Amino acid sequence: MSARYIVGDVRDVLATIPDGSIDLVLTSPPFLALRSYLPADHPDKHREIGSEPDPATFLDTLLLLTAEWGRVLAPHGSICVELGDTYAGSGGAGGDYADGGLREGQEAFTGSKRQGNPRNDKQQMAAQGIIGTTSGERAKANPNGWPLPKSLCGIPHLYHLSLAYGRNLLTGEESPAGRWRVRNVVAWCRPNPPVGALGDKFRPATSYMTVATRAQKRYFDLDAVRGPGSPNTNARTAKGVESRPSSGKKANDERTGGNRSTMPEVHGTEGAPPLDYWVIPTAPYSGSHYAVYPPALCERPIKSMVPAKVCTVCGAPSERIVELEPGAGGLHHANSGGSQTVGGHPNGHRSQMGERRATTIGWTDCGHDSWRNGVVLDPFAGSGTTLMVATGHGRDAIGIDIDARNADLALDRVGPLLLTVEHLADEVAS
After folding, report:
1. What is the per-residue pLDDT across 154-199, written as a single tens digit (0 to 9) for each?
2. Three-state SS for 115?
């Protein structure tokens, strides 16, 4: 496995990536009006994504990027786009930007533990140029472009709904990205969020990851990310009975909306699949800004949505073949929505009789004997967390970032034996 880190504006670099060459786009674009990452003298400062004058224009930017992600995506590929929301007319939202990034001699923000007083965190971030210092000027100047001050703009939800409906929901105009199948909207909850000004609201701790695909059938390996089920639950599920010792009634499980005996895919000896609510703490990286991706947030999408091998002739991913033990109906392909079976049940449904133990016995082979590694693309690679996790799990990766300083950080984390750093201008010249 190997990784490329390309320094340049994402809109320019994407144009150099071939059609259908990417298996997963996993990224977190800059949030609207919260911070500026580039120094004032950067030549592309005026093009910085996240500095758009209003939410509708920002949504246009995201949809234009998504159109390009759809072009480079393989037919079986998916996108996972993590976005947080913005408050209108407060803090940096709708306001002017300070010069962003870490300047020479400037310490990275490390949160309230270093500062000693949580109430100083926002002031410290503002002083370091991580967030803007003025409040609400843009919202006041453009009242129709922003919600009322101190209102959430709904950016993550506007994005996934615009993908589903095929139009910018704020302008009503047709989306350049077209219509997508939104498969999940994963809520990422941070148990250790940074402390900002709270005032009259609860402490924000959640952002959202939109999981979408162009094609109806995609690569998805649920068995790669199953967690262990509890021994008691496994034993009850294997018997096909769910009961609570104190009730004497067959119980309806509030977590699944039905009786667990009819839902072996949720609790069983095969292991429980992850929910669409992920509690993952932030994992600060001292060399970068405070909002760096935690590696654990990248692992599930990469392991479940990026095939280890893809045929270079027909483009088919190698898929897991699972043997289900007595009462389970034979063999089935566990990926691509479980739509193919061998001597088993349609749609990949497990048998609801007997013990549901499963064993991987091999991987599909299209017969062409020509393979490439699965490839992950992070269009906003930052300090290279996505690239580090992808190569660690045997996948290839491509990262893009407009700031050359981040390439050095990624090189330290991924290592020079795996990561190649390129500058777009040099590549175009060659």
Report:
1. 999 999 999 999 999 999 999 999 999 999 999 999 888 777 666 7
2. helix
Task: Assess whether 187 and 237 both reside in one domain.
Answer: no
Q: Do 218 and 134 belong to one domain?
A: yes
CA distances from 85 to 32, 151, 265 (A): 8, 10, 33
Tell me the whole-structure pTM to 2 decimals.
0.76
Q: Sort residue 8 into left (φ over 0), alpha (ψ -120 to 50) or beta.
A: left
Same domain, 307 and 421: yes
What 3-state DSSP class applies to 250?
A: strand
Q: Does residue 337 form part of some domain? A: no
What is the rounded distance in angstroms from the CA atom of residue 314 to the CA atom of residue 323?
Answer: 26
- Asked if residue 84 and residue 120 are part of one domain, the reply reads yes
For 8, 270, 326, the CA distances from 80, given in Å and listed in that order, are 21, 26, 37
Q: What is the secondary structure of 397-408 as a DSSP string?
A: EEEEES-HHHHH
* 158 and 32 inside one domain: yes
Whether residues 265 and 279 share a domain: the answer is no
Give the pLDDT confidence score for residue 289 in this predicted structure: 53
**150 and 111 assigned to the same domain:** yes
E strands present in 85-193:
181-189
Q: Which of 32-46, 185-199, 293-307 has the highest mean pLDDT?
A: 293-307
Give backbone dihedrals phi and psi of 356, rounded to 5 degrees, phi first. Answer: -105, 55
Residue range(s) defining the domain that contains residue 246: 228-273
More confident residue, 323 or 288: 323
Say which CATH number the domain at 297 has.
3.40.50.150
| 323, part of any domain | no
Total number of domains constituting the chain: 2
Residue where a domain stops, chosen among 211, 246, 273: 273
Query: Which value, to the nearest 10 degrees, does the dihedral of the CA atoms of residues 90, 294, 24, 222 take?
Result: -120
| Sheet of strand 330-333: strand arrangement | 341-342, 330-333, 320-324, 358-363
- Using alpha carbons only, give the angle 302, 306, 312 rounded to the nearest 5 degrees: 150
Q: Sorting pLDDT into bands at 50, 70 and 90, what band is 239?
A: very low
Least-confidence region, from 58-62, 260-264, 336-340: 260-264
User: Does 307 fall in a domain?
Assistant: yes
In degrees, rounded to 5, the angle at the alpha carbon of residue 203 between the alpha carbons of residues 199 and 207 is 135
**34 and 178 both lie in a single domain:** yes
Q: Which residues pair with 242 in a beta bridge?
A: none
pLDDT tens-digit series, residues 353-371: 344 567 888 999 999 999 9
